[in-house]
């Protein structure tokens, strides 16, 4: 159980890290994301 718990925590932290990178990329250069969202809505 402890191994599975550690594996789950590692996966969760990896997901948070990827989200953080996406958030930083979005704040540094939001234009492509906004254009993509805009064209997906239109």
Explained architecture:
The chain has 42 residues and is mainly alpha-helical. The protein has one domain (2-41). It contains 2 helices and no strands. The mean pLDDT is 83.
Question: For this entry, what is the oligomeric state of its chains?
Answer: single chain
Sequence stretches where pLDDT stays below 50 over 5 or more residues = none
How many extended strands?
A: 0
User: Helix content range of the residues, please?
Assistant: over 70%
Strand-residue proportion: under 5%
**Mean pLDDT across all amino acids:** 83
Structural class call reads mainly alpha
Count the domains: 1
Beginning-to-end CA distance, first to last residue = 48 Å
- Secondary-structure element series: HH
Strand count, sense and barrel status of the largest sheet are: none
The 3D shape can be described as elongated
Number of helices: 2
Rg on CA atoms, Å: 16 Å
Keywords: Membrane, Transmembrane, Transmembrane helix
Transmembrane segments: 21-41
Give a quick summary of the entry:
The protein has helices at 2-28, 31-41.
